[in-house]
Structures are given as C-alpha cells and as structure tokens.
Amino acid sequence: MKFFLDTANLDELKRGAAWGIVDGVTTNPTLIAREGRPIEEQIRLICGVVDGDISAEVISTEAEGMVAEGLKLAAIHKNVVVKCPLTRDGIEATSKLSKQGIRVNVTLCFSAGQALLAAKAGAYIVSPFVGRLDDVGATGMDVVRAIVQIYRNYGYKTQVLAASMRSPAHVIDAALAGAQIATMPFKVLDMLFNHPLTDKGLEQFLKDWGKAFPEPAAGR
Ligand code: E4P
Questions:
Q1: How far apart (Å, rounded) are the C-alpha atoms in residues 84 and 92?
Q2: Cβ of residue 9 lying under 6 Å from some atom of ligand 1
Q3: Ligand 1 within 6 A of 49 CB?
C-alpha cells in the first residue's frame, strides 16, 4: 500500500519524508491556500521534498479551463498528477488530459458509480472521501470496498486512493479493503506509530540493560 501525505506544509512533508515511508502527496485548494504561496511555487517546493506522485488540483469549473490549467500544472514537474473534480466537466477534462498522457486524480468521489465514470475516463487515480461520507452518516469505507471490487471485476487500472482519512483505523480498513493508496494528514501518519506496549517494552529493555551494564558504553 502506498502512503501519501495529505498536506502542502513543507515542515510536515520533511518530517514524513525523513521516515522513508511517504510515497506521494495530495494537495487541494484549501491546503495550498493555507500555505500562502502561489500553487506553482508550492508544488515545485513539494516536489523537491517528496519523490513520488504529487497531486495538484485545478480550480476552473469548466472542462476547457481545467485542461489548460492541468497542462500548466503537469509542466511544473514530471511527478505532478493533475486533480480534477468529479463533475461532468471534470470527467470531460480527465478524458482529454488522459488521452494526452497526463495523469489525472479524480477527486471529490463519493460513490462507486462516480468511480466508474472516473475509470472510464482513463483516470490514473480516483479519490473516494471516506471521512466526509462518515460525517454525513454514510459508511465511507463501504464505497472504497465497492470501488475496489468493481475495478477488479473489469480490470480497470485506475488506482483507488482512500482520502479524507481521519484515524489510523481508517488507514487499516482501507488496506483491508484493498485500496492501493491512502492519503492522510501528518497527524494520522504520526498516530500509526503509537502503541503503549511498544513504549512499555522499550522502557523495560533499557532498564534491564542499564542494570546489567551500568557504564553506558559497556555490553556493546
Ligand atoms: C484528498 O485528496 C483530499 O485532499 C483530502 O483527503 C480531503 O480530506 P478532508 O475531508 O479531511 O479535508
């Protein structure tokens, strides 16, 4: 499973990248706006930190504008994946960009039917938003499971990226569902490390070692 960080913040990306377990980055207009730099500049900086797929989203709402923006975003760096929303225009833009060899992440996907449209348009990635579905009383992970099954049935190559992850449990469930990618805020990636038995076990090991070898360098 690939782990992407769902942030445009360079400090968070540097911390995650140092662990060697971050395969890519997703951004959206909200995350880019939070950092205060023009999108081209911010995406270029992100590409310098993480070597993997970096999603950058268009803000046009009609197909022609999305294609023009998508071409510009894709020209920033070879790792850029253009993000288009799952609207009629977004799907038209996805078809057009995909035919030109531009990799597209179709975002704001909330149903398996919508995900079928993305696959048929040649999307490289589809992003079902699990947390936002949970927020409105649905079960977001059911949608991820259905998409994985449908894509498998027909051999679609579009990768399923479980987005809007709010907890380590979401990441584990997405892995069990067979999503190829999970994108998560830095906080969720960080929480995946935590287990009280790891802390307790380490404390005990060090205590036992210290008793046997009171001199710091001894016993090595
Ligand atoms: C995905 O690409 C989106 O940027 C993201 O996962 C949305 O998550 P949110 O619902 O926590 O804003």
A1: 10
A2: no
A3: no
